[in-house]
User: What shape does this take?
Amino acid sequence: MAKSRCPRCQHTSFEMQPAAVKNSVYQLYFIQCSACGTVVGVTDDSLHLVTTLLETLNIKL
Ligand SMILES: [Zn+2]
Assistant: This one.
């Protein structure tokens, strides 16, 4: 399987970083190169929100 690489510095390690995005109603996270900080993707915390909601409502799947 091919190894994912940063398009800027070719590093192969990435990290999630909370992102301040103007006018976003959700907390977003950048997926960025852990060496140079180049952003390669973005995600939200919807899984965390759903998990918290299920726990709050005491719903087990
Ligand atoms: Zn990089």
Summary: Residues 14-56 form one domain. The pocket of zinc ion is lined by residues 6, 8-9, 11, 33, 35-36, 38 (CB under 6 Å). The mean pLDDT is 91.
